[in-house]
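Hi everyone, sorry if this is the wrong subforum. Our group has a chain we'd like a structural model of before ordering constructs, and none of us has done structure prediction before. Sequence below.
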Amino acid sequence: MSVPPSSAAWIAVDWGTTHLRAWAMDTAGAVSAAASSDDGMGRLSRDGFEPALLALIDGWLAPDRVTPVVVCGMAGSRQGWVEALYRGVPCTPLDSGGFASAPCRDPRLQVRIIPGLKQATPADVMRGEETQIAGFLAGDPEFDGVLCLPGTHSKWVRISAGEVVSFQTFMTGEMFALLADHSVLRHSVTTEGWDDAAFAAALDDALSRPDRIAARLFTLRAETLLQGLAPEAARARLSGALIGIELAAARPYWLGQAVAIIGAKGIGAAYATALGRQGAAPRLLEGDPLTLAGLSAAQASLKEPAR
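Answer:
Right subforum, don't worry. Here is the predicted structure as tokens:
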């Protein structure tokens, strides 16, 4: 989508490890253009961030004024453009006083980076999810309960009185990828297809006996060799087993709580199904709109007068 430079009142950016996404925002707070690239934090040196951003947004910048750019995600990590220091919980998901200013050579840019959150005990960090949480609370400021943000590193987050009270990270998505792509299970697990019944059975088994997870995982390989287990069933069972042990460990977060799941449709639906089988009734929301809502809340906070 092309857009005349003057319509980009400010620019919202989500900078992940593998991807960079940007949106041109107009004066009414609506998206007038969007662009993305593979220039994630993981492939850039510190000097490469500004050129990578300009490659996407140069056409949205007016030549005669400074355009504010608000960034969330890994651009604020220690290896990023500039480190945006973590804020300790309990705290609100956003505080403009903690935003980091990124050094820019181009005089048309003013870049602010949103910091992540940290927890001392047990030690934990998040970066990027705080913006989705802020977007969620912008639409439901009275929410009191738990947010589940599934992904490579799933987050379970306690919310009360508009603050992040505590959170816990699980490496479930990364473990799935490592096992499916780099372990002996790569010979059994397909990259496509799904089996709902296999997912449910593995989920229930893992929740009831999480201590048996290592043995249950190798069973997938053995059943492939001896009983012709279908690869889509093996994939669903691997997912069900890993989500099952996550839910078993995260039970203090979701049991008896109001729960909302924030994530992509596929993985979000899997978690919703898993929680539903335990008697929970989670709300399911897509992550991208909440990321943009959180970036908009961040931009609005920068415009508020100092108190």
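For your construct planning: The CA atoms of residues 261 and 268 lie 6 Å apart. The first strand starts at residue 10 and ends at 15.
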